[in-house]
């Protein structure tokens, strides 16, 4: 599209100064022109930011701009992107990297500026769509007042350019000057090319559609009348909300009760009242049939939805839902209520007038837009027109109403429209699939709608702005703008609006005004108090303090039955001034839980703002909000986002090739004057051991003993012991190399490099040095087998038998036979052969570290063969040495992985001083490496140790953090993402064993090759493997030396955390506890129940305080202690499993832990855990009439001691206790005697989370008070019965797998499909 002259005029004006373009024609294209021009002249690091008042409008503008300016990256931001969760600067930096144009709603930019993620210095052009909103406290005006104007006052280079777009900048006297002042701009409309503009802008003809009002008889709407009677009969004292407040009894509940009774308003009553009022409006506007249809449709839609889940409005609960349903179900609905014939009795005169007009106007080219005031009327009117006998084939109707991405939008029972279905509405209109859209005021401004030839206002426009913007939708030549008015009542001439519009345009045309006049008008006195963080520029003011405080409370850990909104208390004084105090939930640290306004105020509103301001500043100074004045990331956000860490963690990364210790050995041959000796014994029962000596220029680690698998039946044990270093002579070294080469050549001749013997490690028989020369001479070469075996052979041990007819294939000798053996009786072989050898084929494999699978046992060459001695020759080297030579690759591999582990211990893990090298080998062995052991069980315990240490450290370091902050930080520290990064940062990857040893490609190593070829390549490795190995090494350190070594290992990989000795952490936690706090008297029995007497009572009080509690001595809720207790419980269970059943595979260990820390299981323990106290009853003797006491015992359960101010919590406790009573014996019997864990029975308890939470919180309290005594915590778990069941489960091998997982195991690779069991009733 070529720009027209009047558009270029506005572009030039915009490039010179800040302007508000007052013209409806092609606003989007004007913006595109201006943005493109700005991008051409602004630096590459500057942004253009386009602001729109609604998500729908912003998205539409984004589509236009991104398609029109494809050379630059454009980004659309809305609440659906979870922008409010972008709480770190790096997130914004990443999102805006390489982006030049941003399109968003106003609140996105305001929040980014408020929290210092973005400065106006980064923006070169700000475009305000629908700029007339820039007034009062609208985000547009706040951006200009709080950021733009202070910025241009302080910045020498000025601020961003401003472009405002509006069809109607003002409709009030003096409003234009105010708008210009707010936007620091001049309002402009084309002056020099105005005539050209009018050629392309069509003004519609104005049509007044009068209708005559008539009084409709209520008898024509019996359903409406019945609804009114139902509402009138409602008794507020029976309302569930009122009953709930009466049962609560707290001061806050009583205040709310009084308010409800005085106002006659409750959630349920409001819903029914609103339904009735909407139906009455529809009755008058559209007629009785429409009102009846609306009521019946709302009730039908309500009844279709599941009980208790049909709405998300207000604070609706199950009781209120049931109450509303019951009330509406009593409405009398005649059978033919919704039958429509379109006669005058069914519709109103106004509706009939509209129908007649549409019949006249609808034709092939008809494109219409109708504005209706309410969403309910939109839905009913659209349905009525679509079924009207005359119009149903003429109009294709769709609807469009306001929508929001906010999750806080509340639904109601009077809502019939589903906004999800209107996504294609405007496209349907544009492409002719629909020809009439019925909309609310949402389509008045901004959103691009196809030009219409009929625009109808079903009600009179509310103001001049609505009049202008609605009329602007009728842009086709010859279009009509229709306003429906009741005859004689609405007789206000619309021509007056046209005259006012012309006056407004003349004001725009005043080209002599300047910005100086605007600045002279700024004389508004207001409270500009603010708090600003210098490092980021984030600020908080009295105006935004209250929503900030609500947002902070919304990030607290979610808890059922708890309202986490801040509460305000207002105090008034004789001089009519006010002060306020704000109270935050008890999940917030007590030191910042309350705040008061700093001064007296003339209004309650400003007093509340002041108190909220003081509270938020205190939260910042306490470190509970960051330098962007945003709450620290909460646990609930972590579930959806976790910094997006888990989702963003790549599956594979490049790490260094596995460390090759043989290179250092090869280099040592040039420098070391000593040879280090290792004695190697290969032994097997009923067989003489093979005694060998291994030489190396460096001391190698102790290898202990390990098994080698010759075949499915014969297993050899290798024992390696360390000798002493000794100097060596050149002659000795040459002999050792010769012997090693002879050994390897006997079994690997094709794998040897001819003439090379510079091996990194050397082997010799365990003989005196003087004997070795004669030994090598005696074992070299071959002899004809016939020569050896004719007569009676005198050798004690024979060498390998080589079949000369098969190119010398080696065989193992078993027996000599003189005469043809029975298996060869019928074979056609040389009859002269009389000596035969019974042999087996020498194994081809070089891997003897892994057992031969049973299915492969018959494929290993174990079958006997009979070879004629005349066709064979025998090695002089005894078979035992050839057999040892076959074992050399396996022995070298075991040595290699131990040297890798030793290198890790003497470098990266030097501070840990590992004693058990074998555990380090296990920790670095991935399962795919197929070593004798792998890291999985060590990872199991290391994971628990790391989580415990992290929880303790965070608790001690951040004494005022609530559980949400703690959980988020802990999960970030121990996440696989962070641990994998730690492994990469420290270079751990090169020590991890992932390549399985098979021996298939094994070749002897040579020093010259090792020294020459030291290329440092890379390999791909799973980030999960990297993280697991870190945890496995922590577990190995813990088993090697307890908490001190585990902590030392953690410090290596996570140095960013201040890891202090546990004793110091325990003391810090203990010191932070309020001392000399007096517990409720009843807590003496609680200590008796737990079996632990607290030196300081505060932790016990906190452990039993539900987040809903707001009474005296509130302290903290149990959430922080539950966070700590969760880690303690996990660690105790893991340690018990490891100490009693270390042989278990890791997946079994995980299953056990899952069952023992399961919330339903803990809830059962809580529900049954009790002591009893005596109770006396007086019983009358029937004979004497005297009384005597009878003592009984009543139980005191743990959950009885939980402090709460919520009646709902108490009701939930008792309801669960009733289910417990019904299931107690079945569950107890299953736990004490059953062979399977009672998953299904426990789930039937339907226990709320607080039951398991207080068990873990008690553990946390005991741990703190006992200065970190795990035995004290174990004693508590013994009393609960948890450890007893754990021991039984281990000893008796109780099946702990969840039924769903058991089905998966049984199904194997088969697909599991759900099916429904039919009942007799269904049959």
From TrEMBL:
Keywords (A to Z) from UniProt: Antiviral defense, Antiviral protein, ATP-binding, Helicase, Hydrolase, Magnesium, Manganese, Metal-binding, Nucleotide-binding, Repeat, RNA-binding
Q: Which BP terms does GO give this entry? A: defense response to virus; regulation of defense response to virus; siRNA processing
Start and end of every Dicer dsRNA-binding fold domain?
Answer: 545-639
Q: Does the keyword Magnesium apply?
A: yes
**Swiss-Prot/TrEMBL cofactor(s):** Mn(2+); Mg(2+)
The similarity comment for this entry is: Belongs to the helicase family. Dicer subfamily.
Q: Cite the PANTHER family for this sequence.
A: DICER-RELATED (PTHR14950), ENDORIBONUCLEASE DICER (PTHR14950:SF37)
Q: What is the protein name stated in its UniProt record?
A: Dicer-like protein 2
- Which source organism does the UniProt entry give? Lasallia pustulata
């Amino acid at each position: 599209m070529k720009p027209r002259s009047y558009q270029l005029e506005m572009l030039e004006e915009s490039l010179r100064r800040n302007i508000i373009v007052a013209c409806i024609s092609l606003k989007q294209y004007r913006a595109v022109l201006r943005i493109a021009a700005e991008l051409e002249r602004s630096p590459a690091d500057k942004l253009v930011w386009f602001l729109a008042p609604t998500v729908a409008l912003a998205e539409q503008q984004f589509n236009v701009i991104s398609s029109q300016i494809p050379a630059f990256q454009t980004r659309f931001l809305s609440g659906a992107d979870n922008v409010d969760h972008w709480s770190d600067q790096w997130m914004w930096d990443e999102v805006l990297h390489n982006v030049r144009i941003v399109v968003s709603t106003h609140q996105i930019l305001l929040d980014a500026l408020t929290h210092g993620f973005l400065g106006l210095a980064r923006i070169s052009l700000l475009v305000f769509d629908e700029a007339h909103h820039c007034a009062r406290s609208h985000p547009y005006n706040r951006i200009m007042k709080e950021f733009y104007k202070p910025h241009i006052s302080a910045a020498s280079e000025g601020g961003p350019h401003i472009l405002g777009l509006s069809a109607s900048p003002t409709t009030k006297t003096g409003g234009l000057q105010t708008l210009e002042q707010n936007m620091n701009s001049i309002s402009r409309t084309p002056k020099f090319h105005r005539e050209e503009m009018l050629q392309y802008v069509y003004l519609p003809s104005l049509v007044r559609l009068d209708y005559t009002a008539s009084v409709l008889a209520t008898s024509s709407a019996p359903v409406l009348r019945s609804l009114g009677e139902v509402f009138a009969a409602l008794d507020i004292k029976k309302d569930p909300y009122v009953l709930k407040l009466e049962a609560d009894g707290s001061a806050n509940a009583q205040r709310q009760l009084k308010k409800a009774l005085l106002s006659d308003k409750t959630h349920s009553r409001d819903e029914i009242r609103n339904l009735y009022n909407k139906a009455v409006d529809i009755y008058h506007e559209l007629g009785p049939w429409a009102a009846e249809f609306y009521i019946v449709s709302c009730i039908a839609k309500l009844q279709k939805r599941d009980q208790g889940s049909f709405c998300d409005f207000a604070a609706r609960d199950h009781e209120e839902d049931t109450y509303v349903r019951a009330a509406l179900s009593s409405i009398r609905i005649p059978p033919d209520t919704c039958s429509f014939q379109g006669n005058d009795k069914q519709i109103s005169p106004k509706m009939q007038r509209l129908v007649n007009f549409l019949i006249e106007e609808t034709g092939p080219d008809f494109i219409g837009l109708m504005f209706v005031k309410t969403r309910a009327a939109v839905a009913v009117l659209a349905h009525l027109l679509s079924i009207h006998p005359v119009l149903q084939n003429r109009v294709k109707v769709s609807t469009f109403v306001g929508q929001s991405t906010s999750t806080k939008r509340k639904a109601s029972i009077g809502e019939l429209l589903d906004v999800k279905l209107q996504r294609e509405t405007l496209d349907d209109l544009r492409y002719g699939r629909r020809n009439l859209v019925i909309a609310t005021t949402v389509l008045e401004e901004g959103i691009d709608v196809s030009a219409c030839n009929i625009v109808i206002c079903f009600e009179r426009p509310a103001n001049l702005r609505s009049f202008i913007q609605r009329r602007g939708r009728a842009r086709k030549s010859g279009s009509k703008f229709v306003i429906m008015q009741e005859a004689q009542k609405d007789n206000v001439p619309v021509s007056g609006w046209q005259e006012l519009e012309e006056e407004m345009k003349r004001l725009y045309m005043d080209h002599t005004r300047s910005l100086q006049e605007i600045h002279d008008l700024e004389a508004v006195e207001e409270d500009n108090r603010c708090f600003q963080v210098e490092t980021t520029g984030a600020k908080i003011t009295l105006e935004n303090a209250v929503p900030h405080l609500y947002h902070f409370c919304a990030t607290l850990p979610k808890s059922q039955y708890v309202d986490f909104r801040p509460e305000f208390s207002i105090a008034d004084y004789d001089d009519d001034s006010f002060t306020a105090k704000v109270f935050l939930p008890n999940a917030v640290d007590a030191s910042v839980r309350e705040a008061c306004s700093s001064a007296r105020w003339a209004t309650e509103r400003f007093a509340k703002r002041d108190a909220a301001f003081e509270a938020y500043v205190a939260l910042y100074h306490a470190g509970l909000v960051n330098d962007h004045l945003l709450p620290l990331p909460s646990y609930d956000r972590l579930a959806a986002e976790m910094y997006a860490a888990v989702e963003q963690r790549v599956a594979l990364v490049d790490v260094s090739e596995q460390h090759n210790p043989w290179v250092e050995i090869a280099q040592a041959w040039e420098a070391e004057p000593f040879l280090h000796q290792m004695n190697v014994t290969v032994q097997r029962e009923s067989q003489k051991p093979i005694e060998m000596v291994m030489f190396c220029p460096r001391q190698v680690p102790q290898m202990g003993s390990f098994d080698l698998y010759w075949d499915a039946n014969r297993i050899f044990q290798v024992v390696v012991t360390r000798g002493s270093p000794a100097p060596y002579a050149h002659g000795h070294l040459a002999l050792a190399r010769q012997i090693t080469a002879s050994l390897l050549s006997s079994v690997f001749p094709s794998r040897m490099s001819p003439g090379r013997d510079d091996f990194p490690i050397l082997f010799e028989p365990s003989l005196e040095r003087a004997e070795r020369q004669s030994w090598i001479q005696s074992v070299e070469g071959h002899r004809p087998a016939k020569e050896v075996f004719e007569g009676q052979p005198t050798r004690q041990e024979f060498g390998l038998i080589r079949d000369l007819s098969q190119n010398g294939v080696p065989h193992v000798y078993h027996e000599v036979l003189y005469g043809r053996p029975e298996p060869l009786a019928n074979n056609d072989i040389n009859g002269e052969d009389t000596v035969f050898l019974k042999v087996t084929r020498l194994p081809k494999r070089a891997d003897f570290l892994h057992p031969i699978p049973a299915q492969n046992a018959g494929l290993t060459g174990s079958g006997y063969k009979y070879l004629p001695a005349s066709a064979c020759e025998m090695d002089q080297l005894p078979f035992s040495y050839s057999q040892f030579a076959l074992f050399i690759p396996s022995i070298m591999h075991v040595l290699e992985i131990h040297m890798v582990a030793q290198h890790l211990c003497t470098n990266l893990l030097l501070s840990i001083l590992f004693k058990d090298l074998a555990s380090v080998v296990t920790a670095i062995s991935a399962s795919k490496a197929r070593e004798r052991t792998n890291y999985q069980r060590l990872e199991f315990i290391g994971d628990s140790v790391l989580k415990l240490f992290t929880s303790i450290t965070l608790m001690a370091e951040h004494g005022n953090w609530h559980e949400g902050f703690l959980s988020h930080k802990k999960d970030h520290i121990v996440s696989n993402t962070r641990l994998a990064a730690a492994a990469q940062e420290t270079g751990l990857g090169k020590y991890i064993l992932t390549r399985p040893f098979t021996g298939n490609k094994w070749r002897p190593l040579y020093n010259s090759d090792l020294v020459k070829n030291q290329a440092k390549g890379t390999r791909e490795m799973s980030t999960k493997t990297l993280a697991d190995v870190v945890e496995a090494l922590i577990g190995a350190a813990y088993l090697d030396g307890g908490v001190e070594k585990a902590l030392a290992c953690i410090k290596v990989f996570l140095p960013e955390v201040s890891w202090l000795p546990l004793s110091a952490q325990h003391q810090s936690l203990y010191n932070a506890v309020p001392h000399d706090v007096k517990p409720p008297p009843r807590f003496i029995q609680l200590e008796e129940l737990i079996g632990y007497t607290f030196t300081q009572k505060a932790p016990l009080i906190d452990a039993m305080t539900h987040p809903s509690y707001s009474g005296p001595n509130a302290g903290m809720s149990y959430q922080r202690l539950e966070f700590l207790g969760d880690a303690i419980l996990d660690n105790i269970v893991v340690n018990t499993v490891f100490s009693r059943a270390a042989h278990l595979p890791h997946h079994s260990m995980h299953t056990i832990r899952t069952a023992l820390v399961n919330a339903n299981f803990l809830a059962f323990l809580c529900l049954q855990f009790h002591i009893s106290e005596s109770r006396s009853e007086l019983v009358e003797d029937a004979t004497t009439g005297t009384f005597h006491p009878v003592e009984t015992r009543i139980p005191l359960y743990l959950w009885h001691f939980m402090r709460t101010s919520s009646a709902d919590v108490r009701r939930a406790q008792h309801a669960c206790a009733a289910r417990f009573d019904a299931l107690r014996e079945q569950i107890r019997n299953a736990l004490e005697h059953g062979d399977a864990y009672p998953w299904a029975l426990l789930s039937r308890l339907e226990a709320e989370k607080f039951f398991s939470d207080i068990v873990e919180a008690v553990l946390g309290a005991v741990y703190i008070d006992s200065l970190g005594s795990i035995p004290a915590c174990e004693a508590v778990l013994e009393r609960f019965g948890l450890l007893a069941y754990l021991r039984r489960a281990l000893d008796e091998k109780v099946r702990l797998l969840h039924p769903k997982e058991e089905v998966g195991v049984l199904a194997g690779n088969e697909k599991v499909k759900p099916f429904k069991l039919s009942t007799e009733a269904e049959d």
